[in-house]
């Protein structure tokens, strides 16, 4: 949709559909230039809605025929909809036949039916099905589907769709067909088809009930050796969901297909998940430990949607977190359960919270702030956000915290008993959890708890303490507030579970428990203490809030050294580092780290009781974007300089310790992507980076030389890329031959080249050198802006993930950004809109960046033919 057809959609305006579609028979004659689609539907009026015309959504379709019960009928086109007014009266079903054509090869939006690498793929969520055929393209219209695919057998030997394959065979003229029947009713956004030259890894599994199932992972020929981990992850997902929640696989087969052209990470189409290759392909030569972990998580996420999203789906798109927030929570729990020991579980929790605090908290404070369940949108694709996903997951996690692990499982069981096969709301889910646990605080405070769904912004919990040495009474006063957000000035109190503990001065735990904050302010008292305790507040990050408490360095050092809660040990290190970074940024004084902080970091690095993955997290400084969010007026270049100076001082001061860490944690045996081995590689990578930074400061060539040798000799991508990143990050001259060598080795591996591009575009800025490099990379023969992964690897790595280089005082970064947003919008509005959000927080910038950023946003907004996707983002950014 373009300007002139823009329309804001409001949750309050929801109306049930005037018609239901009971069954759909689709027949595709697949051709890249002109695909023919015959759509036969059984349609009936909704007796609960006043009689009205049938309005079917369609976009970029060529309409050839419309028949009602086999007869021609009159119709008209209004605002992109096919309108049928003269339909049979009464509630009896009738047959509607629509014949259309479309041009998949010209579909650069990658929504609907499109061609990638000479194969056909679909992406229908949220509103892509209307680009395949005219339909009631809304999630509450659920139908049964029978799909017949016909295509040239030589060019497209594999023909896939949802459900079960019931018939296939050869046709005349070298063509063939396949007929698929999905036994479950589904909304059209879960429809999928794939056709092309593909090969499959197959595995048969048996469920607990004794049923056999076929699992398949389809990829292009040549990539089959990179599918073992994806298959193992799928098998683990099937077993975990049945074990943890009693949810079995419900189809004869479950298929995953990988494509290199995909706007998102993956899509949970019923029984036929379509994935970005990034989240399927892995072997030790081409994928890092992070890639392995992400594949496990995303495969789990999409499989878990089979129940939380497919069997029970969303009534409308405002309820998106009903499936996404819940399923993110489920994939986080899956990864934690597979991690095993408590330390590895804690590492996973910290990693999830880092994403929340560096991405979702800024969104909550910016122009695109919205509740977990939004109230309005112009373009629904803009609301596939970290608020809906990650904050939505935290809301579900708080439910489990309040009713317990077993209580939550009971609630999920009741949810499916009530709503299997239905399209429902977030309220329905919350009610099921409450009704399964009627005596819980969650059930008793359900109405108040649901403010997490309706109120935007990140709540702030302010803590004040008091200790009376005479009476021995220690008190904690907890006060909650939430800043205003666009369209919401006043906020009512939330239900906030706060896990806390108290330690004595030597670090011994005195007490622990959970307090549920429901009022604007509450005071807790703890009698019987001889000395003032050290509070450990918000353990495990028990609620998605900003904790405001003026910890002293002494208290933080006590927590870092002794807290039984791993999250708060990590958090203590983050607060120590953030406090110092903010002081340096604000004072403009030279960066000089104090001895107590350095010694604390040395103690962590040398502590034999801590595992390597946890040490890596503690010793990694807070991100520049996180530091920026703690400041009212932001100078991104100053923050970058301060953080880099802190890194160099940590590198230099702990030089012998980094040398010890590198040598002591090097992996020499067979590659394994398990948490322990991955943690050791992460710590050696961090050590190598610091050793190269220290060498840069001292002009010593020994460790860069060792890094280059490590780069050449590495037996896995994690070690190889860590060594390359150490050279690039430190700016050593050996980075140039290493980058050239890396490209020569992996020039035919698209996902590895994405890493190569991203490393250079995201490198530390030294004298404004990164933007010229980015411009050169865009001219590289291997760069293709039409491929979302490649565009993200260069453009997003610079504009969204490299603030020190992007926010140039000469505004050249903003000019580059506006050019790319406009260029991408003409071909792929979804990708363009995500890039547009790189300047969401422009109002926080110091001058001259602030004015220059606004000018760049206004330049984009002035384009007359912007997509709704981009127009919504830039308009909200410019709004007062």
TrEMBL record:
Q: Could you tell me what reaction this enzyme catalyses?
A: Release of an N-terminal amino acid, Xaa-|-Yaa- from a peptide, amide or arylamide. Xaa is preferably Ala, but may be most amino acids including Pro (slow action). When a terminal hydrophobic residue is followed by a prolyl residue, the two may be released as an intact Xaa-Pro dipeptide
GO MF annotation, one: aminopeptidase activity
Ranges for the Aminopeptidase N-like N-terminal domain?
73-190
Q: For the Peptidase M1 alanyl aminopeptidase C-terminal domain, which residue ranges apply?
A: 553-879
Which stretches make up the Peptidase M1 alanyl aminopeptidase Ig-like fold domain?
457-550
Keywords, alphabetical: Aminopeptidase, Hydrolase, Metal-binding, Metalloprotease, Protease, Zinc
**Enzyme group, top EC level?**
hydrolase
Q: Does the keyword Cytoplasm apply?
A: no
Looking at the record, the residues that make up the Peptidase M1 membrane alanine aminopeptidase domain are 230-437
The EC number on file is: 3.4.11.2
Which cofactors is this protein said to need? Zn(2+)
What the record says about family reads:
Belongs to the peptidase M1 family.
This protein is called Aminopeptidase N
Specify the taxonomic lineage: Bacteria, Pseudomonadati, Pseudomonadota, Betaproteobacteria, Burkholderiales
Q: Which gene encodes it?
A: pepN
């Amino acid at each position: 949709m373009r300007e002139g057809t823009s329309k804001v959609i409001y949750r309050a305006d929801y109306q049930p559909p005037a018609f239901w579609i009971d069954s759909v028979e689709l027949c595709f004659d697949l051709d890249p230039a002109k695909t023919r689609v015959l759509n036969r539907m059984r349609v009936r009026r909704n007796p609960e809605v006043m009689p009205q015309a049938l309005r079917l959504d369609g976009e970029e379709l060529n309409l050839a025929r419309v028949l009602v019960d086999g007869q021609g009928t009159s119709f008209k086109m209004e605002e992109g909809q096919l309108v049928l007014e003269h339909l049979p009266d009464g509630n009896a079903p009738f047959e509607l036949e629509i014949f259309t054509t479309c041009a998949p090869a010209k579909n650069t939006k990658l929504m609907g039916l499109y061609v990638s690498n000479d194969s056909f793929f679909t992406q229908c969520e949220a509103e892509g099905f209307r680009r395949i055929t005219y339909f009631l393209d809304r999630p509450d219209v659920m139908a049964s589907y029978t799909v017949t695919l016909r295509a040239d057998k030589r060019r497209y030997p594999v023909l896939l769709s949802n459900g079960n394959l019931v018939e296939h065979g050869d046709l005349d003229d070298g063509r063939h067909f396949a007929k698929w029947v999905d036994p479950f009713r589904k909304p059209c956004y879960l429809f999928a088809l794939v056709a092309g030259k593909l090969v499959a890894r197959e595995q048969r599994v048996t469920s607990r009930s004794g049923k056999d199932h076929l699992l398949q992972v389809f990829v292009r020929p040549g990539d089959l050796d990179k599918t073992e981990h994806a298959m193992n992850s799928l098998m683990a997902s099937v077993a975990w969901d049945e074990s943890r929640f009693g949810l079995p696989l419900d189809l004869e087969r479950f298929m995953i297909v990988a494509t290199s052209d995909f706007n998102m990470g993956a899509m949970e189409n019923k029984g036929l998940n379509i994935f970005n290759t990034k989240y399927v392909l892995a072997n030790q030569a081409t994928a890092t430990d992070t890639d392995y972990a992400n594949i496990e998580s995303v495969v789990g996420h999409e499989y878990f949607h089979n129940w939380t999203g497919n069997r029970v789906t969303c009534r409308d798109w405002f309820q998106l977190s009903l499936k996404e927030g819940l399923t993110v929570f489920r994939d986080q729990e899956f990864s934690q359960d597979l991690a095993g020991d408590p330390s590895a579980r804690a590492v996973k929790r910290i990693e999830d919270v880092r994403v929340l605090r560096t991405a979702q908290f800024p969104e909550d404070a910016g122009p695109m702030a919205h509740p977990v369940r939004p109230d309005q949108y112009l373009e629904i694709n803009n609301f596939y956000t970290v608020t809906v996903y990650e904050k939505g997951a935290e809301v579900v996690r708080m439910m489990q915290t309040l009713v317990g692990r077993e209580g939550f499982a009971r609630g999920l069981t009741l949810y499916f008993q009530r709503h299997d096969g239905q399209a429902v709301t977030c309220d329905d889910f919350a009610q099921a959890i409450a009704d399964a646990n009627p005596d819980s605080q969650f059930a008793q405070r359900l109405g108040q708890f649901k403010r997490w769904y309706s109120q935007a912004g990140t709540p702030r919990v302010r803590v004040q303490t008091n200790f009376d040495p005479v009476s021995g009474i220690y008190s904690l006063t907890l006060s909650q507030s939430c800043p205003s957000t666009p369209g919401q000035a006043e906020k009512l109190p939330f239900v906030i579970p706060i896990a806390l503990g108290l330690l004595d001065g030597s670090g011994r735990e005195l007490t622990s428990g959970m307090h549920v904050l429901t009022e604007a302010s509450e005071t807790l008292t703890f009698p019987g203490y001889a000395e003032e305790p050290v509070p450990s507040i918000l353990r495990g990050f028990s609620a998605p809030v900003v904790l405001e408490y003026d910890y002293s360095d002494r208290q933080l050092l006590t927590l870092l050294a002794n807290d039984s809660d791993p999250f708060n040990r990590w958090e203590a290190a983050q607060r120590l580092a953030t406090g110092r970074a903010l002081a340096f940024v604000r004072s403009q004084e030279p960066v000089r780290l104090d001895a107590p902080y350095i010694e604390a970091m040395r103690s962590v690095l040398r502590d034999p009781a801590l595992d390597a993955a946890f040490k890596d997290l503690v010793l990694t400084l807070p991100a520049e974007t996180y530091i920026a969010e703690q400041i009212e007026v932001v100078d991104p270049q100053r923050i970058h300089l301060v953080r880099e100076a802190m890194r160099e001082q940590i590198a230099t001061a702990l030089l012998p310790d980094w040398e010890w860490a590198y040598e002591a944690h090097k992996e020499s045996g067979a590659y394994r992507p398990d948490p322990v081995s991955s943690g050791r590689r992460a710590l050696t990578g961090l050590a190598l980076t610091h050793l190269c930074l220290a060498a840069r400061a001292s002009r010593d060539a020994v460790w860069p030389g060792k890094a280059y040798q490590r780069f050449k000799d590495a037996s896995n991508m994690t070690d190889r890329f860590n060594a390359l990143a150490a050279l690039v990050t430190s700016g050593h001259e050996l980075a140039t031959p290493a980058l050239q060598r890396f490209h020569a080795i992996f020039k035919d591996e698209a996902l590895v080249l994405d890493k190569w591009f991203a490393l250079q575009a995201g490198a530390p800025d030294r004298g404004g050198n990164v933007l010229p490099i980015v411009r050169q990379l865009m001219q590289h023969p291997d760069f293709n802006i039409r491929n979302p992964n490649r565009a993200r690897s260069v453009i997003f790595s610079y504009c969204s993930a490299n603030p020190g280089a992007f926010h140039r005082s000469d505004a050249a970064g903003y000019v580059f950004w506006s050019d790319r947003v406009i260029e991408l919008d003409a071909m792929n509005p979804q990708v363009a809109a995500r890039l547009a959000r790189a300047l969401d927080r422009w109002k926080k910038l110091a001058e001259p960046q602030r004015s220059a950023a606004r000018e760049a946003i206004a330049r984009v907004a002035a384009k007359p033919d912007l997509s709704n996707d981009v127009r919504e983002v830039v308009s909200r950014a410019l709004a007062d």
